[in-house]
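WARN no homologs supplied; continuing
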Amino acid sequence: MAQPSCVRCRSTRAEIDLGALAHNLAVVRAHAGAARVFGVIKADAYGHGLTQVARRLIDAGADGLAVALVEEGLDLRAAGVEAPILVLNGLYGDGHDAVVDAGLTPCVYDDEDAAAFAARGAGVHLKVDTSMTRLGVRDLDAFLDRHPTLRVDGLMTHLADAEENPAATDAQLDAFEEAVERVRARGHDPVRHAANSAGTLLRPRSRYDLVRAGVALYGVRPTRDSTLDLRAVMRLVAPVARVAEVEAGTAVGYGRTWVARRPSRIATVAIGYGDGYLRALSNVGHAVVGGVRCPLAGRVSMDLIGVDVTDAPPVARGDDVVLIGPELRAEEVAEAAGTIAYEVLSAVSPRVPRIYGG
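OK structure emitted
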């Protein structure tokens, strides 16, 4: 006999505030000025849910969407999303017909892909490498010579350090603007785009005709001292499984890496690296318990963590603990883990149910 699904037996969950998402889009749009705003929703919308986020962004006024993979774009079309969709990573395999048939906008920088889309009469957004040295055409004139029939509807680049290095960003934009002139000289009139979230919010020069806003939409500020009113969209919550009163000298977790220095209360919380909660947070991360920020105690294990709740109000089995959210921003969690907020958010596993509101 088939057993019923138990996805709600454990109350660990990611609460997604779509109202906060719409608010953040409004903040981005206010900075973008006349530029169109495309919401970047790659990697399952940074862990927030691809189709739910896509629909809310379009309903809230986004001009289009950007994904990393063709597969993501096809999933959105299958879900009935009709907005313009830009495919950023330019990996098509033998899927050129699928891209054209689905009305996706391909970004290209590769000769084979350029030839394939030109043969199909499809317009593309051409990506130029302006020093990030990741993706993009490096010898633009030679590339255009090889593909005289390619229809260049857009020209794009990606900023490597718009958050902290205005001089390097200006150098990239100088190179990009030179590329624009070369493309225009060949009779194209491309839509120009370079700005990511940081470019949109911090570097007015980079906004051009279109901006590609990603992590800012999910509430992550571009710099540590930013006061922008960007609201956390994800609130990661897990229940207390057990509370133990321990004596000084008691070890907690694998490897005995945390030892109580005083009589303590340790809450075991039902989340771990199997849920995408980063193991790098072992002994350095925090959780919010009863409104009080409490340190992690011991290593993060696959399904459980220890939290020192000695200084929190009384805690009982089943009480909620906040790991990410307005009370503990993803930027702070990332700093403790020695990583970036993008990873903290997108790492949250699909086995953690997303609960939508707002």
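The chain has eleven helices and 18 strands.
OK
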